[in-house]
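Task 17 of the worksheet. Students: predict the tertiary structure of the chain below and write it out as structure tokens. Keep your answer in the requested format; marks are given for formatting as well as content.
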Amino acid sequence: MKRAQTLLLFTVLLVGPAVAELKVQRTDWPLKGVESFLLHSAQVGIDYRIYVALPPQYSEPDSTFPVIYNLDSDITFGMMTDISRMLRLDSEIPATILVGITYGGDEEKWRRNRNRDLTPAATEGNEIGGGARAFLSFIKEELIPVIDARYRTNPHDRVLSGASYAGLFALYALLQEPELFQRYLAAVPTVVYADRILFAMEEASSQGRSDLRARVFISAEGTQEENWYVDFWSAIWAFTHQLQSHEYPGLRLHTVMYQGETHAQAQPRSFTAGLKFLFARQ
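Model answer:
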């Protein structure tokens, strides 16, 4: 113990002057090739902070890129940027533009706004829920036109990605606006929300529909020993089977369970596996 204290004191004396001379500046996004701007939504009535991560290949003239629209980017933008860029290095996916939708505030602001925007109905535990329709209109009518006008995008190759409530919203968007995106990544989606309201929405949207042309990745998490997780992942399998029961010829659907993973732990694995599946050549 005494030796450790002596070593610590020696280290402080040695590097102390150098530390004192450091000019430290705080940066919230230590990522290269990232732009950001505020965008007001008349549909929702608030301002969103939008982050755009451009690939190194963006400097190539006349090239266009698929766009990943990533929800919950207050906490997942950095992770998704790194994952997509690493997968591109291994040629697992093409170079992409990543658009992160954020609320630009603290955790309380993020939670309050996502509870409204990402859910299709209000519930007893989420009284401000039910803003999914307006939020989807914001993405369709206000955000996508701005992104397509400013950046060299491929308007026929869009991905919508999100986890938990954001995964629920990704599936909601699939049912409500199936042609707005071509690929959907729903990591650990909360399909049990509002007494499984998404099941009724899926059944209603299937009426008169002969096809659903999209690639969809869904993940689940948990173990059979934990009752909450059993309800969670069993609902995801049930929703998967309901989608499959229509036998849509254009639907490419893959659902995977990460047994033993928690809700948060499963998300990085889901984003990695999801992007690989969504952009697979076969």
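Marker's comment: The first strand starts at residue 34 and ends at 40. The chain has one domain: 33-278.
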